Amino acid sequence: MTKILTLIPARMASTRLPDKPLADIVGKPMIVHCADRAREAGFGEPVVATDDQRIVDAVEAAGGKAVMTDEAHPSGSDRIFEALHKLDPYGEVDLVVNVQGDLPTLDPAIIRDAVALMDDPAVDIGTLATEIFDAEEMVNPDTPRSIGTPIGPNRQRSLYFTRGVAPYGDGPVYHHIGLYVFRRAALARFVALPQSVLEKRERLEQLRALEAGMRIDIAIVDGVPLGVDTPADLERAREQLSS
Predict the structure, then answer these.
(1) Environment class of residue 8 by beta-carbon count within 10 Å: exposed (0-12), middle (13-18) or buried (19+)?
(2) Which residues are registered as beta bridge partners of 97?
(3) Biggest alpha carbon distance in the chain?
(4) d(C-alpha 2, C-alpha 143), whole Å
């Protein structure tokens, strides 16, 4: 049986929303809501990987699980790799799910959609995307776009990720959703690679994997989960979770 571990990297450093992981949303810190959503996907108890004892305390006070990691990690991928080795030193975990710590209203079903991609043993990394319909979002460079070739219903094999509007011509354009499922060996390889040329140019770390020849498959889902980055986002999350 495939063993799956869900990890949620979380740091306090946020300029637009200070102490973001501990922001109160209907009586719970945001990071606890994220852990709740991940748990509801049905892959066991998620673990928050953090560099701040306050986050550990908040998660454990709510009955969850957290692990301390090095504060010097440059990315969430590096943080979850350290956490994986602390939690599973004997290599029993097969798949690692990386859920962002600022998605308190995440639909657990899309975690399952990403994990389902890994039924194909040729896939190194699974991720998500959704079609863009909003004209402003279509041209916003803060919106990462995924480009893939269809290989089945609501499934693509990734060819590229970009902050530009692509591909050219008529047809759908997809918003990449930064939730990942790694094979254990793929995560180890990924964090050991140096930053790639296109990764640095586009400021999208998943390009490092593509440039190294790793296979990324994409599940097409309905809608982008609300990422909380600003006070306005926080209010939207409070409204959604209080209804």
Answers:
(1) buried
(2) 6, 181
(3) 52
(4) 33
Q: Is the pLDDT of residue 15 over 80?
A: no
- DSSP string over 122-158: T-SEEEEEEE---HHHHH-TTS-EEEEEEEETTEEEE
- Residues 6 or more apart from 160 whose CB is under 8 A from it? 146, 147, 166, 207, 210
Q: What is the pLDDT of residue 54?
A: 97
Other CB atoms within 10 A of residue 95 CB: 20
Which of 4-18, 63-77, 159-173 has the lowest average pLDDT?
Answer: 4-18
CB neighbours of residue 132 within 10 Å: 19
According to DSSP, residue 23 is labeled -
Q: How confident is the model at residue 243 (pLDDT cuts 50, 70, 90)?
A: confident
What is the spatial distance between Cα 209 and Cα 7, in angstroms, rounded to a whole number?
A: 19
